[in-house]
């Protein structure tokens, strides 16, 4: 989906959501003098860092060990471009990723769609890239899945049933389905259906396939990768709802990395050759072949609107 198509889908989506207003602000430790909604790079050289070893983490939506080898070729390229050592940090939760960014233990990260606002607001995260297809289209959809024979054929059938979410910071795994089920079908969490939390998209998908959960809300980008790897069979699952398209994982930096280093890291993302890489093999299920530049202010506006409609507040501890 192109940015213009996403904007149109956003208008249709937000028309169905309850009216709400919330100003997006950063934690007091960060500044935003240029109004781009992300933390400024510090102007005081004493506040900048230029580490000998760069730490990279991919969003913890699946077993982190799967991605050590997937990302290694890219990390080797990143090391060549920056002249730094680069290590993969297998974070176990979204909260751990945000805390590592905020504490300075993590320098480069792929943060899940719904988590970008809290990482930006509370951890000084500066997203700049996203995966896209050859034609520059991008994104994924939220799907509500069940297993054959569950008795759930359409969203309305979730009434009185259990629905698995992933975590409260996830867009497709919690915030979007909660908002859409209420606005489109009048189904409220804890009133009309019982929420459960699996912790990750792969847990939800496997849980439905194994009939541990009656249904689950998941990112279909994860679902496609798991089917392509034959971790789960498509015959074990049934989709009863598919959303409009959302932006996918945002890749970005800790705000206080030295400006020259930030520029080299961005160069590494946009100069990486995907052809024949492990990264291409992993993500080709949804056709992604490159990194494209994004801005948090523009490309994550739909996610901030969903958060506002749900009354989400970014409380930074």
Automatic annotation (TrEMBL):
Belongs to the phosphate/phosphite/phosphonate binding protein family. InterPro entries: PhnD (IPR005770). Keywords: Signal. This is Phosphate/phosphite/phosphonate ABC transporter substrate-binding protein. PANTHER family: PHOSPHONATES-BINDING PERIPLASMIC PROTEIN. It comes from the Bacteria. The gene is phnD. Residues 1-21 form the signal peptide.
């Amino acid at each position: 989906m192109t940015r213009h198509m996403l904007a149109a889908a956003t208008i249709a989506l937000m028309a169905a959501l309850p009216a709400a207003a919330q100003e997006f602000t950063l934690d007091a430790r960060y500044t935003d003098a240029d109004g781009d909604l992300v933390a400024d790079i510090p102007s005081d050289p004493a506040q900048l860092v230029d580490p000998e070893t760069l730490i990279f983490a991919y969003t913890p939506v699946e077993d982190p060990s799967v991605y050590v080898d997937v990302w290694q070729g890219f990390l080797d390229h990143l090391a060549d471009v920056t002249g730094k050592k680069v290590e993969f940090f297998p974070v176990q939760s979204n909260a751990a990723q945000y805390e590592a960014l905020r504490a300075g233990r993590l320098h480069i990260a792929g943060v899940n769609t719904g988590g970008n606002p809290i990482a930006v607001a509370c951890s000084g995260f500066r997203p700049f890239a996203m995966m896209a297809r050859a034609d520059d289209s991008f994104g994924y959809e939220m799907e509500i899945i069940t297993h054959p024979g569950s008795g759930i054929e359409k969203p309305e059938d979730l009434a009185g049933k259990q629905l698995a979410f992933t975590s409260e910071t996830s867009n497709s795994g919690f915030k979007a389905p909660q908002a859409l089920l209420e606005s489109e079908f009048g189904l409220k969490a804890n009133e009309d259906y019982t929420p459960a939390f699996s912790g990750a998209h792969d847990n939800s998908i496997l849980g439905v396939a194994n009939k541990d959960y009656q249904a689950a809300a998941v990112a279909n980008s994860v679902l496609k990768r798991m089917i392509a790897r034959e971790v789960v069979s498509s015959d074990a699952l049934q989709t009863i709802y598919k959303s409009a398209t959302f932006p996918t994982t945002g890749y970005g930096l800790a705000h206080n990395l030295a400006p020259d280093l930030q520029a080299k890291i961005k160069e590494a993302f946009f100069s990486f050759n995907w052809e024949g890489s492990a990264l291409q093999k992993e993500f080709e299920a949804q056709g992604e072949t490159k990194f494209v530049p994004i801005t948090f202010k523009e490309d994550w506006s739909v996610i901030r609107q969903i958060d506002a409609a749900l009354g989400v507040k970014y409380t930074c501890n």
